[in-house]
Structures are given as C-alpha cells and as structure tokens.
Design goal:
alpha/beta, two-stranded antiparallel sheet, 6 helices, 26% helix
C-alpha cells in the first residue's frame, strides 16, 4: 500500500498589475480585496496540506490589507521578471513537502473551492499535470506533479507552465467559465 500523495496549493500574486494600473491584488470586489477571493477559495480545499501565496511588487501593502487565510507568504525578489519567477519560487518552496502543487491566480475571483478540489481529485498520481479547461480553452487551476518541478525551475520570463503541459501527459478537467476568467482591467470589477 502506498502513502497518500501530498498536495499543496499555490496562488500566484507577485505581479505589479501594470496593465491594471496599480496593485490589482488590492482592488476591491464585493467588499474585499481581489486576492482574498482566490485565497479563501483555495484555503478551503480539504485535500490540500498547505497553501502558499507568492508576493512581490506590493508585498507589504498586501500583507497589511489582505487576509491570507493561513497561506504561507513567499517573497519573490525577482518578481519583475514575470510569471515564471513567481511560479519557480512557489514550487521551489513547496517542493520539499508536496508531491504536486495546484496553482491558481490572484486575479481569478470567481474560482470556487469545488472547482479547485475537482482538479486535485482528477490527478491519478501518475500524470505530470492536470489542467482546468472550459469550452476547449485552457485555464487555471493547474496541478503540477513532482516530475515537472525541474522543468518549472528552468522557466524564465513572463510565461507560466503552458509549454510544459503541452509536452507532458496532462489530464484535462472540463469546468465552468470561472477557470478562464481573470481580471486584467479596472472596468472588469466596477459594479
């Protein structure tokens, strides 16, 4: 009998929000900061042993204003490089304690706990990854298994794991539109 897999959660939130025009993570939506929606959803997934959040451009302001819901903050000093720096730092910090990491984004406020849990539950322990998909479009969350950690460590620039998922055995999970909806502009959160 094998031991159960250890799975951790990771919210990427280190960016500056340049397209948004400021710290997107702190923009108010439904009475709380945008990032808090993502953290609350992932923190409530029962299968996750721990949750971390990458912080960078607005680290101090986020810590002062956002309930991290128990997530371990990981400071990404090279956050300006782009998403790869955030993903590398988060996976590296969780690698010693997790056989897989399920990754979500700070700007996905409609992502639900049940959707994240569904992606986690779809992992068979052998596939390199699991990806949420809506109507043929890839989205987040994405689960990255331990065999991809070395490739994640080599990522550079403003790219996530998309290339790795295409080149690996990836399970897809059909989900609702929340997996492809993210906030890029202020107009998207104005009531």
């Amino acid at each position: 009998m094998t031991a159960p897999h250890r799975i951790a959660g990771l919210v990427l939130a280190a960016g500056a929000g340049r397209r948004f025009g400021g710290p997107k993570q702190l923009a108010e939506l439904d009475g709380r900061p945008l990032l808090e929606h993502a953290l609350a959803a992932i923190a409530a997934v029962p299968a996750l042993e721990r949750v971390a959040v990458t912080l960078g451009a607005h680290d101090e302001a986020i810590r002062a204003r956002v309930d991290l819901h128990g997530a371990q903050p990981i400071v990404v000093t090279d956050w300006a490089e782009g998403q790869a720096a955030s993903l590398r730092a988060g996976v590296a910090a969780l690698a010693p304690v997790a056989d897989a990491v399920v990754v979500t984004l700070a700007d996905q406020p409609r992502l639900t706990t049940s959707t994240i849990a569904g992606v986690v539950a779809a992992w068979d322990g052998r596939a390199a990854a699991v990806r949420a998909v809506h109507d043929g479009s890839p989205g987040h969350p994405v689960l990255l298994a331990r065999q991809l950690y070395p490739a994640v460590a080599r990522l550079r620039g403003d790219e996530g794991a998309r290339r790795l998922l295409v080149a690996s055995r990836t399970i897809t999970v059909q989900c609702g539109p929340e997996v492809v909806l993210d906030i890029d502009e202020r107009a998207q959160i104005v009531p």
